[in-house]
Structures are given as structure tokens and as C-alpha cells.
Amino acid sequence: MSDIEQLRQEIQKQRELLDQQQRRLEELERQTLAQAERLEKQSVQVAEVEKTARSKSGNLAPGVTLYGILDGGVEHLNNIGENKDSDTRFVSVTGTLPSRLGLRVKKEFGEGYQALATLEAGFNFDDGSQGQGGRLFGRQLFAGIATPKFGTFTIGRQYSMLLPALVASDMLSPNIYSLSSLDFYLPNARYDNSLAWKGKFNKLSLGAAYSFGRDVIGGTPGSGTCAGETSDLDQSTACQGWSTMIRYDDSNFGLAAAIDELNGGTGATAFAPGGAAPILFDSEDDTDRRINAGGYYKLGNGKLGLGWLGRRIDTRSGDVDVDAFYVTGSYKFGAFTLDGGIHKIDQEDIDGIDRDAMLYVLRGMYNLHEGLDIYAQLGHVANDDDAAYQVSLGGGATAPPAGESQTGVMTGMRFMF
To answer: pTM of the prediction?
Structure first.
């Protein structure tokens, strides 16, 4: 082989090596571009997650959540007052849920421990005025510690334990037409100056609350104020309140019971709707006790609840006995939910007059978007001869004449965030 042929072969080998190197460089370049694209997608996903987290926390600091409900609409009522007037109005207090704005704070410390606080303001949706007697944070204002084994301990203004038991079986309260129409305390069952404990142990929930002075400013219709915490040793338990709760929740059913008791004191009255006048409730020996027992059962997209709410007012002026029975139900069809309830109340006043009634409620709600619902509902109260229960919790004195029925219809919107 001549020198020229050897040189040609050598040149050909070098070309092949250069081609191999070029292909390797091109493959590395493709891999680098693919890796860059993956990293870019991951960075976009991380940014989206961070954006979602910020939006859910109200763009606040970690552990701080801003939340709220705006709920209202237009209502028509008939048979109002002795003249049996009708009224069409924008409701002020509630539609399906009372309007509110709140902050929820949680901060981890130690292993499994949390410092927590809630500041929740209630307001009237029609004009923006404050609810709960004009309190700044009238719905809830408390701070506390959550432990990994022994439950949560809180202090401040907070709910009676009657409510977490009641909502297990009553799927309507505090709807504008609901059991709360027959007992105005139910949507206002809160304590000032209170200590509370709640614990969840697998399927069992327990709770207890105690107040040294349950209502400094007022807020429950017809009940005055009851500040308590007096230096008068003869009235050491005046205006105090306490409640306990037990609740069991399984996958398809649940049971709950609670007791709530209020003591009388200076400035207080006890009010039982239905046409009776408020009762003087100014002694520490006066008591207003409610007992609730109920349960629920789930079947597919449906849920059925039933329960009993008993009340006894013991005062120096006399006693009032109340028994309320209710059946509520709910069924979900895709984005549409239909629910309603039948309620019966039997009330015997101090003067021996029976003020009994039946309340019927039907409500339909359609979910337009996450947190946004529109609804329409109907409420009808049928009063016995001496009873004058009003059907609506929408604000104001709108009771019919004694013995007359009343119907309310409402359409509205609810936005939750």
C-alpha cells in the first residue's frame, strides 16, 4: 500500500471519529435542552403552588388565614303585625349563614403543639353595621393551645358547646328559616369571659365551656345584658354560664348531645319567642337550661337528621317549659342541593298559656363556582291559637298576630372565601 493510500485511510478514520463526536455533542445538546425544559416546568409548578398557598392564606404570613362569608338577598313576608301587612326587603342578618370576616392564626411550637387564635367579626350585609351588640369581634375572639393528646384549651369570647352538638342533626340552622326561628338564642349561643376545652379521640368528640360573665354588651334579642364578675358575694355566680358536649361520628351516622345553662343576674331577661313577654331574670338563682340530643344518617348523596331541644326557664316569677322536635334532610344532585326541615315546638308559659307551632322549610342551592352559590327558599310557620312565632330571622319584629300563620320566601347569594 502506497503512502498516499495510508494517508487517505487515516483521514477517513479521523472523519469518522469527528462524526461520532459531533453526534455525541448533538445528543448532549438535546439532553441539556430537555433538562432545561423540565426545570422550567417545575419552576412554573412551584410558582403556581406558592401562588395558590398565598391566595388561600389571604397573602398573609405563614399560618395566618383570612376568611369570610357574604350572604344575603331579598325576602318577602306576609301577615306582619296586627294589620297583617306584607313586606319585601333586603335581609340584614342572615340568608343561609351570617356574614362575617375573620382571621385564623396557627403557629407550631414543640412536637405536635400549636398556638392558635381566631378573630371573627360579624356584620349586617345590608348596611355594613356591626352585629352581636356592636362588638368589633362579636362572633369569636379567642386564643389558646392545641396539644397532641389532650385536646385544645382556649380563652376569650367563644361558642357554647350547644352548637357543635346541634349542627350534627340540624342541617339548616342558622338559616333564616330554621329551628333558630323558634329560639333566638341558638344563633347567638356564645360566652364572653370564657374558658373552653375540646378534644377529639378517634370518632368521639368531647367539649366543655365555662363563663365568668356570659354577656357584657348584649346581642341575643329580648335577653338584655348580663356582665357578671361582680364583687357582691351574694351574687357570686350571677351571669355565669356553662355547657358540655359529647359527639360520636362514624362514616355513615353520628350521635350528639349537649347541655347549656345560663344563670341570671343584673340587667338580664329571659325570652321565649312566640308572643310571650321577656321574663325578669335578675337573680343568680334563676336558670335557663337547654338540652339537645340528636343524630344523623348518611345514605349516598343524602343525609337525614332528627333531634330534640328541651328548654326550662326557672325564675322567681315562674317557670317556662319548651320542647322542640325537628327532622331535617339534604340531598345533593351534582351542583344542586335540596334540603329542608319540619319543626314542632310545644311551649308552656309562666301564665299556663300554651304557645305551640309547626315550622316547615324548603331550600334549593346551586353551586356556580368554588365558594359561590345562589339559592331560593321557603319558610312557613303555622301558629296555634295563642302563639305568634315569626318565620324569619332576617331582622326586626315581623311576627304575625297570635294564631295566624306566616310565610316567607327568599332568594339570595352566598360567597365564601
So the answer is: 0.83
